[in-house]
Design a protein that fits this description.
The structure is a homotetramer of 347-residue chains.
Chain A (H helix, E strand, L loop, with lengths): L2 E9 L2 E8 L8 E10 L2 H8 L8 E2 L3 E9 L11 E4 L9 H4 L9 H4 L12 E5 L3 E3 L12 H14 L6 E5 L3 H13 L2 E5 L3 H8 L5 E2 L6 H8 L5 E6 L5 H7 E9 L8 E3 L1 H6 L3 E4 L7 H10 L8 E6 L6 H4 L2 E2 L4 E2 L6 E5 L1
Parallel strand pairs in A: 9-10, 9-12, 10-11, 12-13, 13-15, 16-19
Antiparallel strand pairs in A: 1-2, 1-4, 3-5, 3-7, 3-19, 5-6, 6-8, 17-18
Helix pairs in contact in A: 4-10
């Protein structure tokens, strides 16, 4: 039986570069994909820490693209040789949420997600189902192609928050998600500012050429008042999951807060009276939904400033060492300063 | 100088039935109104307690209608003899909020509101400005006419929450605001349930013929799961200002919470991660905005079930005694059980 | 091989009551359904005339409900014995429209629709796929259950037009679709009026207790001005497909026209300048989309006034004769006055 | 009495450079403005032809900015010395449309518009009312400041059409309005294409660096199919008023058409069945509404590519000669090829 290289998540703290069998088509709706590249997501880092749902002995990696090398008998959406990106979140299509058009809440996500519950993209090959395979044009290269789904989640946030061309926007946190929101807002909105506390990523944030702040070294509320002539921000995007209390301080009356980042350890103490008096909207949005094609369209346009997004591209077999650059020292299982925005693995 | 009867708010805890001069037109945009009736609002009760902004030596009362008896030289919207309702919140029209079409945040509200900052409807006559005077059809009688603005605030909430005809709706609190939301949802939505803890008002809530719960005597979360086959509510309206934590428990993934009621003493401890994971929307909405004409249309239609809304109509001069029925014993300045939904004063 | 009764569409003008084999499960995602009842849709009448797309030698009927009697190996959404309604329009899930969440434009509808391109509900049994089978509660009986999908299309229209509780609404045409819109608007909107030219259906329209007009025997524009104090209608729903020119006349500035009914023979001559000057919105909406569950919720609530919707329930084998009551004399292939709103066939 | 230079519209075909008295404050809400610059709008050209409503013996010009030199006693929004732009359309605030928040349909526009019904900006001074005066930051210079209101109308269109960051957009017509929509869409949307038939303006359209087409010299439908891989455009903006039939051809199923340009001589022959089958939305939008502040924010941001918008800046006294460059030879009253995008007059 032919084998392939893969990074297998063994248990919290342990990911292993090894050889496993190349998967084979066993159902009519399956697609076998040769992986071109796979990004390391922040949630993979959280899995390694045990701070995210996980399944042991699974190949991680859910940000990948590649080429179709085999298809099941009923597959029509792609054919062998197609250059494709994936939505790692396969939806069941028949739960009540899917049937309401609200597939980001599909109750089967917990069994189906590639790279978490099923083997993912830290490997040479991935077995997927037709529904999650999307043809992409050649103009989207293998590095950019890893971010189709990531951008899709951000676009679901954009669909929720409905940013206007005259809005002032504040993005809290400039990891990969905050980066993508900032890049979009830089195009769409009248003005955008971004924050980040990690020094490496703050340096990247500054390269957007928009106001960038480290909230630990400035009085952010004052800076925002200055930037907006006292009006505060029309849209505040929490890309960290820990900033709701602050977001409420920074948003203008009638403004919108997008609660995007996730951190289940954070509790917010808020005054609902203030939400009401100022007609503030707090909008939760989860993963992507109908946004893979929009993501492809936007990446294809070349309009997003992705110049500083990809920090490095390294071989798959060096992947274990990349987690330290993303802030988690696997040997000592402790947080360290980040040395990367996005790292991409190539098998 | 001619005088009129009025209830004057002297200071926290003291409101006085007295005679004051009948006001006169002194500016071209003014309208003098003979009051037909004036409702007592819950915020008037809060003013008596010192729990709401107030101005001493002012005639309270902002839920009133009446007949135009004099107009200034530039007034065109109404004429002498017109039967009118009022928006007690006069907007300046030139602040940034007004100019953005977001007049519910007008920065001049704090100086202009009739019945709080300027003399209001607990009197025989009120001096208003043209902008807040709205002609109403005769089919809206003097009792119903007192609620035009109140319903206008509720309709601003409806504009914010965009209830659908297939939604399940939960209204938390059945005071006058909760009553109006329940009456609307009973028409609009597929199903509605309502809660109330005050015994008098709970009895009224039950008369809607929809599920009514006293959350102090039942397990509301279980009841909601039962009502919705485990799905929870599409829309939850907090008509109390103290229920955000609960509202988050009762709302379905993807659902909407309308933060309408106001209680500045309440702090909510919430987990933003839950908001994000379940794509919940928390929507603040404050007073009315462009909703007086819609309110008039809806009241004119006769479609709202107002049968149990007005508890009693009493003479203006008996108004001081009405506060106890609304839950505040003015003599001892302590809370007592309510004996009314809405009380209307007639001069 | 066991056989069943069925009405088979042979060719334009010819539908035949006959016996055909009972279908059998041949694929893992299939569901075999024992039909409880099936409504006759206006589009079935158009198929008989050759004015709608059709496929010869197909069992017509797409408004049906029934009981699951067999399922394929991969089916999870329903089980044998379940009481279900159907969405006759199976969507492929992988075309660009489906993937954008816009499945009403699925490019495979033209091959998949039950009762048009595949055998439908004018039979004792129907072979369907899991995706179109929806469990319904017992409170929805077999007659009401036939209209789950029909109401679903209307709810897609409601999602598009976003009717408000203070709106005035005009429904042009009171066939089954116009009936359903009127029944909803009667609940949701501040006021509703309805038109119909067919005498039988006009008599039904009048039973709603809302203003009903025969535009051939009155000056409808004048009536509308009278009803709305000169303001015209906030929402106009064209349930016929031939009324766009009139709808533009009847709608208020800033109002919305829902273009719902379909008649490919009708061309409208309109002045775009008027659309612009009056900020009118013309909103097309096609079949249902994510609206079967909402339809079930609404029917389950019992809130729609369906009392005059079902004209008669007749045996399946008498179905051929029903077309004349729906306005098409099959013998002479000519239009005749209607004698029914909705006719339901029971096998 | 002091006089000032002004261009007075005498009658169709005749505009005269003359001296008229400098206006004076006569009411408490008035503002006297020293004009810095005034753009010539396409509707001014139409007035000269008699193809737009007009009032004889009025100073034209409604695209202007300047400095406050005197204010009435009740004015608070601006003070002497302020640098301001104007909304030439003063709204009454008390008609039903204004009171519904729908002031673009204000019934008093027809009496109040500066530069059409009251003396406008082709002069050294203009007498305005407080409500239409908006402070602008110094970073908006006198040339850009003339377009605050024009851009405000375009932003009302943007509010209506809700362009998304992944949309493909087609702008039909590249006069000043089409230019502004193209400049915005170039920032906001994934892709934009623009059309124009006038050679001078087509040359400007090409400078955007986006696909530009002269529909008279290409097969536009084919070009659109090519650009969009057969999908057609998500958003089509008719900036001419004569393109609705074409817009329907160019828009994708589910797409939106913004009917913005106005030409009352154009009638469109459309098939409503197509609108319905393809779920197309046709959205009218008229002038600006709550969009002056957004316009100022967007111009202040410097994000719009205005580099090719202003063709020339000439003295007010040379203004009569400018109409020929905008396509109307006043001597012979005939259309001639355009030689300008926007011409600005300086007193």
């Amino acid at each position: 039986m032919a084998t392939m290289k893969a990074l297998v998540f063994r248990k919290v703290g342990l990911i292993e570069s090894t050889e496993i069998p190349i998967p084979e088509i066993t159902a009519p709706n399956q697609v076998l994909l040769k992986v071109a590249a796979c990004g390391i997501c922040g949630s993979d880092v959280k899995i390694m820490e045990g701070k995210h749902v996980y399944k042991e002995n699974t190949v991680l990696g859910h940000e990948f693209c590649g080429t179709v090398v085999d298809i099941g008998s009923s597959v029509t959406a792609v054919k062998v040789g197609d250059w494709i990106a994936l939505d790692n979140n396969s939806r069941c299509g028949v739960c009540d949420f899917c049937r309401m058009g609200f597939s980001s809440q599909c109750i089967e996500l917990k069994n189906r997600t590639l790279g978490i519950f099923k083997n993912g993209g830290y490997a040479e090959y991935v077995l997927a189902t037709e529904d999650v395979c999307f043809r992409i044009p050649n103009v989207i290269d293998e590095i950019t192609g890893t971010q189709v789904e990531t951008l899709g989640t951000v676009l679901n946030g954009m669909n929720t928050v409905q940013m206007q061309c005259y809005d002032s926007v504040l993005v809290l946190g400039c990891g990969p998600i905050g980066y993508l929101f900032t890049a979009i807002a830089k195009n769409v909105a009248a003005s955008v500012a971004v924050t980040e506390i990690d020094p490496f990523r703050f340096d990247i944030a500054k390269k957007f050429g928009v106001p960038a702040f480290n909230p630990e070294t400035c009085n952010l509320e004052e800076e925002i008042l200055k930037l907006t002539s006292g009006k505060k921000m029309d849209v505040v995007i929490d890309a960290t999951g820990t900033q709701l209390e602050n977001a409420i301080k920074y948003v203008t009356p009638g403004g919108k807060i997008l609660a995007f980042g996730m951190d289940s350890s954070y509790m917010a103490n808020i005054q609902p009276n203030y939400i009401t008096r100022n007609a503030i909207k707090i909008l939760g949005t989860y993963i992507g939904q109908n946004t893979i094609l929009p993501s492809i369209k936007l990446l294809q346009s070349g309009k997003l400033d992705m110049r500083n997004f990809f920090t490095e591209v390294i071989p798959l077999t060096s992947g274990v060492g990349a987690f330290a650059k993303l802030g988690l020292d696997l040997n000592e299982m402790k947080h360290v300063p980040k040395k990367a925005m996005k790292i991409v693995l190539k098998p």
